[in-house]
Amino acid sequence: MNTLSDFTFVSGLLFAVGIYGLVVKRNALRLLFAIEIMINAANLNFIAFDRFLWANSLQPEAALGQTFVLFSIALAAGEAAVVLAIVVVAYRLHKDVDVSELKTLGG
Amino acid sequence: MADLVFLAMMAVTVGGAIVALEAREIVYGAIGLAGSLFGIAAFFFLLDAPYVAVFQITVYVGAVAVLIIFTVMLVRQERWMKEATYSLGRVVGILTAAAIAASLTLAWSASHLGSVPVQPSQATFVQIGQLISTSFSPALEVLALVLSASILAAITLAKVERGEEDQR
User: Fold this and answer.
1) Facing A23 at nearest CB: one of B93, B115, B128
2) Among candidates A5, A60, A70 on the partner chain, residue whose Cβ is nearest the Cβ of B52
3) Is pLDDT above 90 for B102?
4) Backbone angles phi, psi at B120, to 5 degrees
């Protein structure tokens, strides 16, 4: 069995890759990819700590991490739907999805 | 210590994430993202959370990744393939990511996370259901509201008005 630090290591790597995408990329779709990657890094941490934390897995709180991740996945799905709709609208208006060009969204 | 299966899953997950951000053709990037999400689901299986893993595959790989691929095909432009490869921003981004990865790894290797004993078993989906239907039932209803609001917003945003269609 792997130790808890192995999973946190993977999660930290994923989070760093997501930060890199957020800093460097200007394409709105790539930014969405980076955000999804970071959300998944956080979810992995939740599940890993949930697995290692509870000595008695029959107590009700032992499923807290998994419950949080279920809510997080559902929220991320809604967020992706809204972001993709915004991307489609921005493309219809500007023929591009470069976030540095989308100044009209700033009001 | 990490075994071969773990290393392979790590390669799929992190490699898929890098492909998602760095592939020149953005459709391949979307497929790389789906691979990365699938690797995360494999980690959930490894951590004895099969319900969450199946949920992850259904929602992320099944719905979100396919939605992203369709949107990418709708808005794709050939000129994205020729975006600048080397720039100052890219170097700064790589340095930032390396600094964050190094600090997180150092902090975790200095802590006692490596010696936390593995617990005999993981909570089952019965307990998840009990939690969701008791303590988290208000959160569940708020989540339902948020989901329906976001679906309404997505439909309203992406809807093409009849007059707008005629102008183009």
Assistant:
1) B93
2) A70
3) yes
4) -60, -40
Chain B contacts of A36, Cβ < 8 Å? 33, 37, 60, 64
Quickly state the pLDDT bin for A37 (edges 50, 70, 90): very high
Left (φ > 0), alpha (ψ -120 to 50) or beta: where does A95 sit? left
> For residue range A19-31, what is the model confidence (pLDDT) as tens digits?
999 988 888 899 9
Question: How far is it, in rounded angstroms, from Cα B2 to Cα A55?
Answer: 23
Instruction: Kindly report the pTM of this predicted structure.
Output: 0.89
* HEC per residue, chain A: CCCHHHHHHHHHHHHHHHHHHHHHCCEHHHHHHHHHHHHHHHHHHHHHHHHHHCCCCCCHHHHHHHHHHHHHHHHHHHHHHHHHHHHHHHHHHHCCCECCCCHHHHC
Residue B129: its H or E element: helix B125-133
Provide the b/e sequence for B24-38 (b: ≥16 CB within 10 Å): eebeebbbbbbbbbb
Please check the confidence at residue A87 and state whether its pLDDT lies above 80: yes
